[in-house]
Amino acid sequence: MKRSFRTLMLLSLALMLVLTACSSGGNGKNEGGNKPDKENTGASDGKGASKDKVTIKIPHYKSGSNVGAKFFLPQVERFNKKYEGQYELIIEEIPQDDYNAKIKLLAQQKKLPALIEGGEKTFLEDVVIKDELFYDLKPWLDSKPEVKKLMIEDNVAYNTKGDKIFSMPLITMRPIGLYYNKEVFEKAGVTKPISQMTFAEFNEALEQIKSSGVAPLTLMTSENAWTSMLLATAFMANEPGGADVLKSTEYTYDYTAPAWINTFTQLQKWFQNYTTDNAIGAAYADAANNFLNERTAIIANGPWMVGDFSDTTKSAEGLEKKIGASIYPGGIAIATLNEYSWWIPKGLSEGETQAALAFLEFMAQPEEQEAYMVAEGGTAPNLQTSAEFESKLNPILAELNSSTKNDLKNTVQAMSSIFPNQIADPEFGKFLPTLINGDMTPEQFAQELTRKAKQFQK
Amino acid sequence: MNKKWTTRAWIFAFLAPTILVFLLFNLVPIITVFVTGFTDWNGFSAPVWAGLDNYINLVSYDDTFLISLRNLGLWSLIAGTVHVGFGVLVAFILYKRPFGWRLVRGVFMIPNVISVAAWAIMYKFIFNDDIGVINNFMRDIGFSNWHVKWFYESPAAFIAVTLTWLFYSVIVTLIVLNELMAIPKEVHEAALLDGANEWQVTRFINLPLVRNAIGTGVILSITARIAMFEEVALTSRGGPGNDTYNIPLMLYNGIVNSEYGYANAAGTVMILLGVIVMLGVNRLFRMNEKIY
């Protein structure tokens, strides 16, 4: 009896093993590291690309209510119209915070979409670039001199990995400045342009604004503490040695140098004296809401925010007429040329690759770049803009351009660009309340961030 | 084929699908987690043997692990007493079938059909300083300077995170209520004939007879604390500083940083803690002993 029971057990085990083996079938090796997945990409058979329409479906955060959707989705429409019957690009909506994680997940499943914009730097460098899981753009770019000549050389260099080009080099760069409420400034008696102030003068102006009854700064601690981090970046760029640190092409893991400590000290003072009560715990939406509804006088943010000033569902009526734009005190602008842009994974079908390249070329067209700058700001150093460009430009963006042109002394990267991932989000924002509450001194804050950063340093 | 053999075969046949699913979807991942916890693995390239490095990093890099363990200990204590106690209390009240008991049972179930992530976001609003009901209530009743930043101050953050789950114990209630309803009528009749009053029946008959159900509730409640992620990640994110950190956040931190070996070491610790809790509670509540 025992023997029969054992036999039944063994038979059952064998059945399970067979089923287990079957379940792992189909994971064939893929040379390019990416398995074109028709269900995921919606791609048709690339072999007949010249005759059949190729549809590529990509997840992207510039969709839905994301601020970038306003320009990006119509651009996709224009592309689809231009290549009607040949290529179609479909955008799958995904929250911005989930985008990098989704790309990593799809990479693990070998189901990367045909077009990806950037991604987590460590993942791109340690996995995608190191294992050459990308489609080399160099031969294609060499065959498109009209596109190549528009590109910013520094970004071409950054994207060049050995003899390959990883991602589409930038044509337009968008300096991040700040916006301020002119009416509040006037009432407070602040007349000197911010970009011509020193930070000591800027702090005096904050005091004047505070005295006039308005919270001067729009600060936040949640998410990546974006608006706070930008102001801190500008302050640090004015500190001895700070700009050099902020221009690094590598991540920085040590924040105990005097430039950092002074910056954290200043940040603590700003939070404690010159912002709203809800700044601790505020996410970007809360911070933006404070500025858009005139509860604060200054917000640091990119040119993509300009559209919000005239959007009455977000802003107080007529706000756009009160807004001025500037780069930071000390003539500092924040921009990065050390970044990755759109890239194509290796191992797609020919049809998908051609469709993806067509979209990159479409975006690089002078008229598209110009439309992009009109909508979201920025400058393209190698692009000859049309005669109407200046007149089409939003007056606030024009003011930012003018401030950049006249007062720019230094351009640095945002602090978050040199923070490793876990510091950029969440540790910096997570430890900020302890700094603001006084539970940590700036020195302790710096030490704690340094310890966190070094935990996974390679 | 004798009767005993037939019975065993049937038992096995009915268990086989469950065993199969367990092997495929639980045991294999558990073994993978355990083995890769000893490797340096970024999730893409082949894992490289790293011995105990991940565990050493996990436990001794800074005070995060100790804080996580302290938090888990406190949360487990609160879960095993207040959380389970509340669920048991509701079960005993519902067992008496007071007016509207079915409605209460249904309403008590609602939090369980709403995702934890949604609850976490709701609690961020509930505890918001500007618009949250808690702070506004306190200001309305006279504490005009009441401005607690619930998820961003110590020790308020720990309290706020605890309150996001503390009173949602319907699973405990349902298990205990089911066990109460299964107590044979004769037991109660005999007790009443012997002159026992309502309190004595509850204290000396019902409570001991639902011992196993309460034990199960304690296990479920504490293991849920070991695996608690959304309640922390979507509210305090483990902050301020490391104040509300826990092991699932350490695991998540490993994944975010492409340190899957480290993440799986954290996962292994969570599994081991779960097993310890199961064995401990089993023993404490003598769950293997027959009740009737």
UniProtKB/TrEMBL annotation, chain A:
Keywords: Signal. InterPro entries: Bact_solute-bd_prot1, SBP. Residues 1-23 form the signal peptide. Pfam families: SBP_bac_8. It comes from the Bacteria. Residues 26-50 are annotated as: Disordered. The keyword Signal applies. This is ABC transporter substrate-binding protein. The lineage of its organism: Bacteria, Bacillati, Bacillota, Bacilli, Bacillales.
UniProtKB/TrEMBL annotation, chain B:
InterPro entries: ABC_transporter_permease, MetI-like, MetI-like_sf. It comes from the Bacteria. It is a multi-pass membrane protein. It is found in: Cell membrane. The keyword Cell membrane applies. The chain crosses the membrane at residues 12-35, 72-95, 107-126, 156-177, 209-228, 260-281. It holds the Pfam family BPD_transp_1. Residues 69-281 form the ABC transmembrane type-1 domain. The keyword NAD does not apply. Keywords: Cell membrane, Membrane, Transmembrane, Transmembrane helix, Transport. Belongs to the binding-protein-dependent transport system permease family. This is Sugar ABC transporter permease. It comes from Paenibacillus spongiae.
